[in-house]
Design goal:
- The chain is an alpha/beta fold.
- It has four domains: 213 residues, 3-Layer(aba) Sandwich (D-Maltodextrin-Binding Protein, domain 2); 171 residues, Periplasmic binding protein-like II (D-Maltodextrin-Binding Protein, domain 2, 3-Layer(aba) Sandwich); 160 residues, Rossmann fold; 47 residues.
- The protein is 34% helix and 15% strand.
- The longest helix is centred in the last third of the chain and has 19 residues.
- The two termini are 23 Å apart.
Length: 694
């Protein structure tokens, strides 16, 4: 049957667009200006058509440059991918893979689509058995040392000669002179196509944001240009009660350790000496304070100028101008510091990105009062911006197995996925739906650029088997701030949403958000308990997330009628909730595992038996829960999850085992004979068997 993807409350699974070739193209791409290469294609197509004309192998090209897509005949290539991005739910069944097949006539068979420790362990096993290797590896996560070792063992192919014939590979190396050198290993060979990450925010991560209303108040709107001017500004903020609340709560400068370029020391040091990611940064492997000066590598931390910078920071700290929690607090505490709900307290802060949720939601808010502060000049006139060293190896992207029968085609495929056209389609979606080429002669670099807003059709799924059931009316129970309700409308999953919450405060917040999005006519915010805020005949389905399973059971039971479907994400009581839904005549057709903020959540879609075909396209073929014994632990774990083993399966089961072992460890020897102890011990054994069976 056709499966439907669930909507997670946090939006973690709302979008599952696979960005396969982004690994090759980096964060950005060139301008979408279509080029005419028809003449070149004509010659190559002729070669492709002639290839195999005498009955020989149609895929046996003499060189990679002779390969022309689409191939004359369909070719299947097996692939391994270590998938680090859990928003990519499936490499096999998605629009991107289909598009690549349409363009190349190559069917990509992802025989290994794994993540995390499971991917690493499986890859290690594969490399001990060459007969099990796929045709190529899209992403391995190997270090340069590991890649070199496999190359010298003859398990993967050196591809520099084939790459040298490739147009996009050559262009990328010309644009980034260090690229080929980074990809060439100590034996002189290139084993991986590598990535391309020449993006501004990657190279210049370190930013300082300044609060413009206070710049207007104390500096007449002109930002500080020197360390001395910055010091004077911070001092005025501290001593003058800048926010006017009569409380000494101003924080002139702040940041935190462990975030993306969030240490203010790093930004400030570049007013004294060139320095990127020194000792305090949690990722010292990226430059790590090393700089190139007149062709020589220097360790900035050991220079007198760096010590001068530390003295400046010490002065700020001693005078209370640098938050004394900067080097102790984490991101959560930093976010609390930046909270401006009762008035702003901060003058400047360091971070790689804007610290404001409304900014990322693309709505008006406090973030519009902030501006990026340009580097300030130190006492010696030094005014650098820390630039991160680029690496193109990027976890070893694009490797050809020594057992691959057609390495020339694979290399040509790598180069195709690194093309500008592929970057637009793979990174942006379908041409004409989510983006379009500019008209000839239009330049985005000169004059005033004109932008056209594209709206993806409501019924378009990037992932073949994706999408919440589409219905006329859906209830979002426990709506909190109304984010999910708005997304249901914006993503075309519902024409009308009832957003209910039992608490007045969150509901008022939801009303404000709905109003800010101009959706008052389509989202009705109602104060009340569960589905009691709805009436019979109003709804097709409902979503309940982030509550206990027993509460969800009561909400469903107290509703005015059995709805056509429910999306349920219980925090506990999974067994009891699943059993209740099955007893009430619902079929659980899909279960998913999602990870959000380091935590794992499961959710399931239950459809009323008489509505299964309406929402799935086909009658149900198998109801795994119908014959499941009542005492089975799979009621809690998820029987469909056990069948399908999604990418987070092992991590999920490991967590369930950990929970139970912690409970067992907390029980004394005197309790070891109890039924509860024996039950937990049996559950651990059962969960371990699920991993062994994998």
């Amino acid at each position: 049957m056709k499966r439907k993807q669930l909507l997670h409350k946090s939006m973690a699974v709302l979008t599952a667009l696979t960005l396969m070739a982004t690994a090759f193209t980096g964060c950005g791409s060139g301008s979408a200006t279509k080029q005419d290469d028809s003449a070149q294609s004509t010659d190559a197509e002729s070669q492709n058509a002639d290839n195999g004309a005498d009955g020989s192998d149609p895929f046996a090209f003499e060189s990679a440059k002779d390969v022309v897509f689409p191939l004359k005949e369909k070719l299947t290539l097996t692939v391994f991918v270590n998938n680090p991005d859990q928003s990519v739910t499936s490499y096999q069944d998605n629009w991107v893979t289909d598009w690549i097949e349409e363009q190349t006539n190559i069917h990509l068979d992802y025989v290994y689509d794994l993540t995390g420790d499971e991917a690493t362990q499986k890859l290690n096993l594969i490399m001990t058995d060459p007969g099990s290797m796929p045709d190529f590896f899209l992403r391995t996560g190997w270090s340069k040392a590991e890649t070199l070792s496999y190359g010298q063992q003859g398990l993967i192919l050196p591809i520099e000669d084939m790459l040298g014939e490739m147009e996009n590979w050559t262009t990328m190396n010309e644009e980034s002179p260090m690229r080929k050198a980074d990809l060439t290993l100590s034996d002189g060979h290139v084993y991986t196509f590598g990535g391309q990450n020449e993006c501004f925010h990657c190279m210049y991560q370190h930013r300082m944001y300044i609060y413009k209303p206070w710049v207007e108040k104390y500096l007449g709107g002109k930002n500080p240009e020197t360390t001395e001017e910055l010091y004077n500004f911070l001092k005025m903020v501290k001593e003058d009660d800048a926010n006017g609340n009569g409380i000494d709560d101003e924080i002139p400068m702040t940041g935190f350790i462990g975030g993306w370029a969030s240490d203010p020391t790093v930004w400030m040091m570049n007013s004294f000496t060139q320095c990127v990611n020194p000792l305090s940064n949690t990722n010292p492997t990226v430059a790590g304070g090393l700089v190139v000066n007149n062709g020589k590598i220097e360790y900035a931390v050991m220079k007198d100028e760096y010590r001068d910078g530390l003295r400046y920071m010490h002065k700020l700290f001693e005078e209370g101008l640098l938050d004394n929690q900067t080097f102790l607090q984490d991101n959560t505490q930093f976010s609390a510091t930046m909270d401006a709900s009762e008035g702003n307290k901060v003058a400047v802060y360091a971070n790689g990105g804007v610290e404001n949720s409304e900014f990322w939601q693309q709505v008006d808010g406090e973030w519009q009062n902030w501006e990026i502060l340009a580097p300030v000049a130190g006492p010696d006139g030094v005014r650098y911006s820390g630039r991160c060293i680029q690496t193109y190896f990027e976890g070893c992207l694009g490797v050809v197995s020594s057992t691959c029968k057609y390495p020339e085609i694979v290399v040509a495929l790598f180069d195709f996925m690194a093309s500008e056209d592929a970057a637009h389609h793979i990174g942006g979606g379908p041409e004409g739906i989510s983006w379009e080429y500019t008209n000839e002669g239009v330049s985005l670099s000169g004059g005033t650029p004109a932008y056209e807003q594209f709206t993806v059709p409501e019924d378009f799924d990037y992932v073949k088997e994706g999408g919440l059931p589409k219905a006329h009316a859906i209830a979002d129970i426990g709506t909190d701030h109304g984010y999910l309700a708005v997304e249901l409308i914006n993503r075309g999953r519902a024409e009308f949403v009832i957003a209910g919450d039992v608490h007045k405060g969150p509901l008022e917040s939801a009303k404000e958000y709905v109003k800010s999005r101009g959706l008052e006519s389509k989202v009705d915010c109602r104060l009340g308990d569960g589905l009691k805020v709805t009436e019979k005949g109003e709804l097709n389905g409902a979503i309940c997330c982030g509550m206990g399973g027993f509460l969800m059971r009561d909400i469903v039971d107290a509703g005015p009628e059995p709805l056509e479907f429910y999306v349920l994400q219980p925090q506990n009581g999974q067994k009891e909730l699943r059993q209740y839904m099955v007893q009430k005549g619902y079929v659980i057709v899909l279960e998913i595992i999602v990870e959000d903020a380091g935590k794992l959540y499961t959710a399931f879609l239950a459809i009323r038996e008489d509505c299964v075909e309406k929402y799935t396209g086909t009658p149900i073929q198998e109801n795994v829960y119908a014959a499941l014994p009542e005492e089975s632990l799979l009621w809690s774990v998820g029987a469909l999850l056990e069948q399908e083993h999604p990418p987070l399966w092992k991590k999920y089961i490991d967590y369930l085992i950990y929970q139970r072992r912690c409970a067992l460890d907390g029980m004394t020897d005197k309790l070891s004979h109890t039924d509860k102890y024996k039950e937990l011990d049996a559950e651990v054994a059962f969960l371990c068997s699920l991993l062994e069976n994998r």
